[in-house]
Amino acid sequence: MTPRLAAVPLRPRRTARALPLDHVPTSLVRVGDTWLRTHRLPDGGSRPDGAAFVLLHGVGISARYLVPLAQELAGHGTVYLLDLPGHARLPRPARALTIADFADAVAAVLDRAGVSDAVLVGHSMGSQVATELLATRRDLAAAAVLVGPIVDAEARSVPRQLVRFARSTWHEPWRVRGIAVRAYLACGLRWFLEVLPAMIRYPLEERLAGVTAPVILVRGEHDAVSPSSWVEALASRLSGPVRRNHRTVPGAAHSVVLDHADDVARAALDALAESRRSAP
Question: How far is CA 91 from CA 6, 54, 88, 94, 194, in A?
Fold first, then answer.
């Protein structure tokens, strides 16, 4: 059954301290009984070539976490930043969503926007949503960058993940911690806890095994949530054409997508180039 779609365009906010997303086209989109918010940064390059980048945030966070990355990519194509259902003060769905539910909602929004062959960039839980799209909607995704991919099969429990997250947070800059705390407050503890079990259970390594599109894995040097052993194990399952399919960013932790956006953008552009080289 095709999800019901309804879009509500939002006027850009005019505030004394305008943020980057306050001046870009933004819409609230209803998909079935869930709502998403989409921000669209038009191609700012002098030679637009039709590239599309779709940025997907992690659990409890919002699209604002990905603004530096969007700014890095805006000169190379159109960038779509999505606030996932229940996040960033969006209405909370009446039931807990699975990763497949999140992916279906994202797919419906991209279909409505006419997006295809995009480069997906998913951070943390967003890497799971991106992987699900790679596995189920190959027409939407030409390539992907999975940043801080989770959840390590050797630590698939809430207590172990919380310990790892605390270890990783120790290495995050205070500015990054402040942005994350504000996003978590906007999401709310109740929805965070409702989403957490599905995120912990999602078998990322199994879903990646059948993906043939170019995929690049990125982690921070101090990312205890996505340790090197786990990322290397994921890389060994990839069958796509990328030779250097996993990278570690020195000095970074789990929030590498925010405080090292240039490194993540470089990976996204490499994934785009590889997808075009390998296209039939």
Answer: 15, 22, 9, 9, 14
Q: Tell if the pTM clears 0.85, that is, is over it.
A: yes
Name the residue type at position 119: V
Q: What is the CATH number of domain 5-277?
A: 3.40.50.1820
Dump pLDDT digits (tens) for 101-127. Answer: 999 999 999 999 999 999 999 999 999
Residue found under tokens 């709502």? 35
Q: Which tens digit of pLDDT belongs to each residue from 204-259?
A: 999 998 888 999 999 999 998 899 999 999 998 887 666 668 999 999 988 899 88
- Kindly list the domain boundaries of the chain, sorted by start residue: 5-277
Task: Give the strand order in the sheet containing 246-249.
Answer: 5-10, 26-31, 34-41, 78-83, 52-56, 118-123, 141-147, 215-220, 246-249
Tokens standing for residue 134: 């790679």
Residue 143: burial class (beta carbons within 10 Å; 0-12, 13-18, 19+): buried
With cut-offs at 50, 70 and 90, classify the pLDDT of residue 5.
Answer: low
Cβ atoms < 10 Å from Cβ of 3: 16
Would you state the structure tokens that stand for residue 239, as one six-digit string?
A: 């069958």
